């Protein structure tokens, strides 16, 4: 099954995301590698089935093992950051009514944060505010200039 370039793959289940974590960390893995590195015990056939499902969903591709033999190696087709962002957006839309700040506030209230982690978050927010402020300024400038040229013209 091939995926249309514009079609988004279905969301990952918990078990599928565990397999993907192994692939993202290792970059390439055999079924045996996946079984060995999963956080909980699974049978070889279960791992193989999950890899095949992930391939059908468009998250994974396989190729013959470079050393030959019957084994295949599997690799992720999408970077972890892209998949994470898509899943977070889905979570925000489904459980928080599209309000990302509700998720962030919930995380701030429920998680234990070190001072360094909070400072890093603060720095990221300040950087975003600065970028947003600059974007707002640049979007206002052309209108101001256009208005003043009309007054003088």
UniProtKB/TrEMBL annotation:
Belongs to the BlaI transcriptional regulatory family. The keyword Phosphoprotein does not apply. Residues 127-153 are annotated as: Disordered. It comes from the Bacteria. The keyword Transcription applies. Keywords: DNA-binding, Transcription, Transcription regulation. It holds the Pfam family Penicillinase_R. Gene3D superfamilies: Penicillinase repressor domain, Winged helix-like DNA-binding domain superfamily/Winged helix DNA-binding domain. This is BlaI/MecI/CopY family transcriptional regulator.
């Amino acid at each position: 099954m091939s995926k249309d370039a514009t079609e988004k793959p279905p969301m990952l289940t918990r078990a599928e995301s565990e397999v993907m974590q192994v692939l993202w960390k290792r970059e390439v893995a055999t079924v045996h590698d996946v079984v060995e590195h999963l956080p909980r015990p699974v049978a070889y056939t279960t791992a193989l089935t999950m890899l095949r499902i992930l391939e059908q969903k468009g998250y994974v591709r396989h190729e013959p093992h470079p050393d030959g033999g019957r084994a295949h190696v599997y690799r992720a087709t999408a970077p972890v950051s892209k998949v994470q962002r898509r899943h977070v957006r889905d979570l925000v839309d489904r459980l928080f009514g599209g309000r990302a700040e509700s998720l962030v506030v919930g995380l701030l209230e429920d998680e234990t944060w070190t001072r360094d982690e909070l400072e890093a978050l603060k720095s990221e927010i300040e950087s975003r505010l600065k970028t947003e402020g600059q974007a707002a300024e640049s979007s206002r400038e052309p209108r101001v200039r256009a208005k003043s040229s009309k007054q003088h013209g």
